[in-house]
Amino acid sequence: MDVSTAEFVALALAALVVGFSKTAIGGAGLIAVAVFAAVVPARESTGVILPLLLVGDVFAITAYRRHADWGLLVRLFPSVAVGVLVGAGFVSLVDDTVMRRSIGIVLLALVVIHVLRRRRLRRRGEALPASRTRRLLLAGGFGFLAGFTTMVANAGGAPMAIYLFTMALPVMAFLGTGAWFFFIVNLFKLPFSIGLGLISVDSLWLDLRLVPAVVVGALLGRWVIGRLDAARFEDLVLGAVVVSSLNLVR
Prior knowledge:
It is a single chain. The chain is an all-alpha fold and 250 residues long. It has one domain (5-248). It has 10 helices and no strands. The chain has helices spanning 5-23, 29-39, 42-64, 70-93, 96-124, 132-153, 157-166, 171-195, 201-225, 230-248. Helix 1 (5-23) packs across helix 9 (201-225), helix 5 runs parallel beside helix 7 and helix 5 runs antiparallel to helix 10 (230-248).
């Protein structure tokens, strides 16, 4: 887990993005995932970044804890747990390249689907999926995908963001629901990452040195989010998802 000075600077900037993504533009977190995968072997990088994500999660729930939609979260968690379990099995079987490219392709497809759906809804003047059955199906599908992608590549922010946009949550509810979701899910992932050998004493020592950058990023995100309107917020999140997904499929 030895890194050069230049590599450490790159990781510190990525850690700053981790904090920023937790309190502001969630999709930006995939940029940090890509940087960590470039500096540290892709498989091990998922374990290195997980403790940093949890530090960012603490800042996020502290800031937005009162804005979560718990009914929506309860609908998601069963399928998320299944996705995490399947993802853990996937990680144990495939190499870095297959893992990275599979996630990138899925995320790009989700962005395209969401943009097309958003245009259709704007033409019709609809806000939410029409029926309770359809909402449950959406929760099951996106929950599984979020659990799988977060276990495999810490990339669950993209499907989760698209799902929350589909449910037409306002910015603060989006942030609060996402904050609690990832705090709980990342804690759930922790023993699996340890069991797969993705977290070690060396990786935790590296994380300890990167924590200050996460804190700075989280505080910066709090400052930025109060200056964004809802439409701009959604476009920035989707843009971050696209850029990061293209990097994953390289």
